[in-house]
Amino acid sequence: MDNETPTVRVGLVSSRRIALYVSAGIVGFAVGFIAIIAPFGWNRLFTALAIGLLLGGAIAGWLLSQDGIILDDDAVSVRTPWRRSRIAWDRISGIHARRIVTTDSDGAEKWLFELQFAGSTETLALLEFPAVTSSWANPYEHRTREQLKAVFDIARAKGLPAAVPAAIAQPLKEHWHLEAPTY
User: Fold this and answer.
1) Most CB within 10 Å of its CB: which of 23, 65, 104, 155?
2) What pLDDT is attached to residue 77?
3) CB of 161 within 8 A of CB of 183?
4) Strands 123-130 and 75-80
5) 49 and 95 belong to one structural domain
6) Which stretches of the chain score pLDDT less than 70?
7) What is the CA radius of gyration of the chain?
8) Are 51 and 125 part of one and the same domain?
9) Where are the membrane-spanning stretches (predicted)?
């Protein structure tokens, strides 16, 4: 096994930024639609719809793909479409996990994994997902498990401890076969 630290892309996109990206996609749709309808008329309705959907989807997809957190050997990179910043690993003191209850009608429990900054109460949210109650059963859960595994691998490589409560650590170990790094 080599000593290279894995690279993982994680991060939560706020609902406000998702709304912004969807709005930009809608504007892209409108521009594409009008660009076909204006010169060719309503006879090209389906072509205009297709071009508008492709353009709007491409814009929204590109914006969403530019948003995230990259953990690699050098640093933690926080990206949005309009800003990039890098946080050195020596500013990170560990990983913190906690349970949160959503305000949805079902009140489902979710787990939040964050990077904790050294000498600060500031955190950076990495992953938020529904509480684990069984082995992964779909692609979303499998991807989340792989992301969490990669986060734990990076934490081990960097010597960062993970503060994971027993109520979270036990199901992770039992169902997903993941153990948080401890030091």
Assistant:
1) 155
2) 92
3) yes
4) unpaired
5) no
6) 1-5, 104-107, 182-183
7) 21
8) no
9) 18-38, 45-64
